[in-house]
Amino acid sequence: MYSLCCLFQIKDDWPGYNLDLFTYPEHYHDDIENVYIPHGVIMNRIERLARYVMEDFEDSKIMVLCVLKGGYKFCADLVEYIKVLGCSSNRYLETRVEFIRLKSYLNDQSTEDLHIIGSSDLSFLRGKAIVDTGKTMKALLKHVETFEPKMVKVAGLLVKRLSNMTESLTDYVGFEIPNRFVVGYALDYNEYFRDLNHICVISKTGKMKYKI
C-alpha cells in the first residue's frame, strides 16, 4: 500500500483546467472536456517518483518492465529521470528496460479478459529487482511472480479511486484520481489521443466519434 503522506490526490469535484489555457492538437477540440493534469505537473511528479525509486533500491541494477502501449511515455520519462538523478549523485542505478503489451479495454470499459500480446516468456526476470510500470496489475503480477524475480515494485502514473478498492498493488503512485476515463500522455481511447501531452477528460462527443 502506498503511503498517504506521499500521495497526490485529485478530489472528486476537481473540474480540470479550461482548454483555452493550453495548447493541444486542434482536431481534438470537441473531443475533450478539459485538461485534467497538465504535462508540466506530470513531469514534475515523475521526477519525484524517480527519487523514491532511487531511495528504495539497494541494488545497483534494476529491470524495468514497461506495459505497452499506455505506459510507454511514463516508463521512458521515469527511466530518464532515474538516469539524470544517478548522474548527479554518487549512486548510479543501472536500468534495463523490457516491454510487454497488454489489452484489457474495449471503448471505455475494462474487460475481465487480460490478453498478453507477444511473448509471455518472462524468464529474463528471474533473480532480478523489477520496477513494473503499467496499469493492469493483478493478473500481470501473478504471471510475473511465476518467474521468481528477486523483488517486484509497481509504479503507476494514475490510480483510480474506486468504491470497491480494498488495496493498492502500486508502490509508486503519480496521482490518485476519481473514477473518470482520461486520455493523453499515451493513454488512449481505441488508439486515439495518445498524441496529447496533457492528461484530459474525454467528452461524450469524443467517445461517440471514436467508438468501435
From TrEMBL:
<keyword id="KW-0660">Purine salvage</keyword>
<dbReference type="GO" id="GO:0032264">
    <property type="term" value="P:IMP salvage"/>
</dbReference>
<dbReference type="GO" id="GO:0006166">
    <property type="term" value="P:purine ribonucleoside salvage"/>
</dbReference>
<dbReference type="GO" id="GO:0005829">
    <property type="term" value="C:cytosol"/>
</dbReference>
<comment type="pathway">
    <text>Purine metabolism; IMP biosynthesis via salvage pathway; IMP from hypoxanthine: step 1/1.</text>
</comment>
<comment type="similarity">
    <text>Belongs to the purine/pyrimidine phosphoribosyltransferase family.</text>
</comment>
<dbReference type="GO" id="GO:0046100">
    <property type="term" value="P:hypoxanthine metabolic process"/>
</dbReference>
<keyword id="KW-0328">Glycosyltransferase</keyword>
<keyword id="KW-0460">Magnesium</keyword>
<dbReference type="InterPro" id="IPR000836">
    <property type="entry name" value="PRTase_dom"/>
</dbReference>
<dbReference type="GO" id="GO:0032263">
    <property type="term" value="P:GMP salvage"/>
</dbReference>
<dbReference type="GO" id="GO:0004422">
    <property type="term" value="F:hypoxanthine phosphoribosyltransferase activity"/>
</dbReference>
<dbReference type="InterPro" id="IPR029057">
    <property type="entry name" value="PRTase-like"/>
</dbReference>
<feature type="domain" description="Phosphoribosyltransferase">
    <location>
        <begin position="43"/>
        <end position="189"/>
    </location>
</feature>
<dbReference type="GO" id="GO:0006178">
    <property type="term" value="P:guanine salvage"/>
</dbReference>
<protein>
    <recommendedName>
        <fullName>Hypoxanthine phosphoribosyltransferase</fullName>
        <ecNumber>2.4.2.8</ecNumber>
    </recommendedName>
</protein>
<dbReference type="InterPro" id="IPR005904">
    <property type="entry name" value="Hxn_phspho_trans"/>
</dbReference>
<keyword id="KW-0479">Metal-binding</keyword>
<dbReference type="GO" id="GO:0000287">
    <property type="term" value="F:magnesium ion binding"/>
</dbReference>
<dbReference type="Pfam" id="PF00156">
    <property type="entry name" value="Pribosyltran"/>
</dbReference>
<dbReference type="InterPro" id="IPR050408">
    <property type="entry name" value="HGPRT"/>
</dbReference>
<keyword id="KW-0808">Transferase</keyword>
<dbReference type="GO" id="GO:0000166">
    <property type="term" value="F:nucleotide binding"/>
</dbReference>
<keyword id="KW-0547">Nucleotide-binding</keyword>
<keyword id="KW-0963">Cytoplasm</keyword>
